[in-house]
């Protein structure tokens, strides 16, 4: 029997962007052995569908090519870019941002735009007594996304993986259930990214760049990452050997690994939750921290932890929204 779909729709408009949308929600009636079940057709399943149906863009040279171009534009328009410099504090007085502290010096500005992970920024760079909606205690109580372990490899050859490939757990439902509860399992799923199949600039001639991404619980689930890193690594290598008959280690020339702890400690990502505040309804879109930050005047936010949400297209949208606020002054 074909599933019966009951549709209803909802019109929404969004004051910050002026976007009006008609959201089609659907309930699917599916026949199970124990009777008919009503299941929501999830809005989030639209994204994988669109990617399969319309394909994806790849930036030649990798995503950092976009950042390099942005830096060129900033410099061409009279701005300057300072890298490898940690902002120690966002200077705020009477809930108004007036600059940043860098290299132990206070530098004053009319406005500050923060792109660092929101929860890290709120808890580490701003004094608690300047915050209202997002005090350090309130930020700690929010729900956070999963983390990932990434294995970046430089290989001596081009291997026969697709550009994008996902290897699913034997029991995928169980893996997702455990992941959502912050539990670890050896029955992992992982993503293989092999961009050298379409982009020869990713590696020297005859070689390739490849990464493996394993979604894992974030740092709210305690783990000794010094030993667990190699455990996950060997699970991935064993799985690749079993499923593709490829000895990845034998082809590896260079390697870099980022664990959930590294995301937290080296990349300033709160709890290593790389997709930021989790995408539950009460933390999505309007319910994320606003680009014109509601707690502090003159502080503007961009990035995955803010409005509208995580994922690159959405993040660039947050930058467009913020630049409009800055233009308005
Ligand atoms: C492994 C992985 C895979 C992903 N894959 C996808 C994908 O396929 N598609 C997708 O749409 N999204 C993906 N995402 C999610 C999201 O799109 C990316 O995480 C995105 O890069 C987040 O952008 P951002 O601007 O919020 O943060 P970032 O790109 O992390 O930028 C924040 C910047 O702030 C800097 N910073 C932090 N603290 C300080 C400080 N104190 N002083 C100065 N600078 C500081 C950091 O160095 C960093 O450069 C992925 C994320 C990860 C981690």
Task: Please provide a written account of the structure.
- With 329 residues, the protein is α+β, with helices and mostly antiparallel strands.
- The protein has three domains: 4-54, no CATH class; 86-143 and 275-328, 3-Layer(bba) Sandwich (FAD/NAD(P)-binding domain), CATH 3.50.50; 147-267, Guanine Nucleotide Dissociation Inhibitor, domain 2, CATH 3.30.519.
- It has nine helices and 13 strands.
- The strands form four sheets. A five-stranded antiparallel β-sheet has the order 9-10-11-8-12.
- β5 (96-102) and β6 (105-108) form a beta hairpin.
- The chain is globular and about 60 Å long.
- The N and C termini lie far apart (59 Å).
- The relative contact order is 0.13.
- Flavin-adenine dinucleotide is lined by residues 86-87, 115-116, 148, 150, 213, 268, 274-275, 303-304, 310-312, 315.
């Amino acid at each position: 029997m074909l599933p019966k779909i009951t549709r209803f729709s909802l019109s929404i408009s969004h004051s910050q962007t002026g976007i009006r949308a008609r959201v089609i929600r659907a309930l699917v009636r599916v026949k199970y052995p124990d009777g008919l079940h009503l299941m929501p057709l999830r809005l989030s399943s639209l994204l994988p569908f669109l990617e399969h149906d319309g394909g994806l863009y790849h930036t030649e040279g990798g995503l950092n090519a976009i950042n390099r171009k942005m830096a060129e534009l900033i410099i061409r328009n009279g701005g300057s870019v300072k890298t490898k410099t940690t902002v120690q504090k966002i200077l705020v007085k009477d809930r108004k941002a007036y600059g940043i502290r860098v290299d132990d010096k206070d530098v004053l500005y009319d406005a500050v735009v923060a792109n660092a992970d929101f929860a890290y920024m709120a808890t580490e760079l701003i004094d608690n007594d300047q915050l209202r909606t997002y005090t350090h205690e309130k930020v700690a109580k929010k729900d956070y996304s999963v983390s990932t372990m990434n294995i970046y490899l430089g290989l001596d050859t081009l291997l026969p993986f697709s550009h994008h490939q996902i290897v699913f757990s034997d029991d995928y439902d169980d893996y997702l259930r455990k992941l959502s509860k912050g539990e670890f399992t050896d029955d992992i799923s992982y993503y293989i990214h092999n961009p050298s199949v379409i982009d020869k600039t990713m590696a020297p001639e005859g070689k390739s760049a490849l990464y493996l991404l394993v979604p894992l619980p974030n740092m709210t689930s305690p783990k000794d990452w010094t030993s667990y890193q190699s455990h996950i690594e060997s699970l991935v290598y064993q799985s690749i050997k079993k499923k593709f008959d490829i000895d990845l280690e034998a082809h590896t020339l260079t390697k870099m690994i980022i664990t959930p702890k590294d995301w937290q400690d080296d990349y300033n990502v709160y709890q290593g939750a790389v997709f930021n505040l989790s995408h539950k309804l009460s933390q999505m879109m309007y319910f994320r921290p606003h680009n014109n930050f509601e707690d502090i005047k003159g502080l503007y936010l961009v990035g995955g932890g803010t409005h509208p949400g995580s994922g690159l297209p959405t993040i660039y949208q947050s930058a467009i929204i913020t630049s409009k606020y800055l233009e308005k002054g």
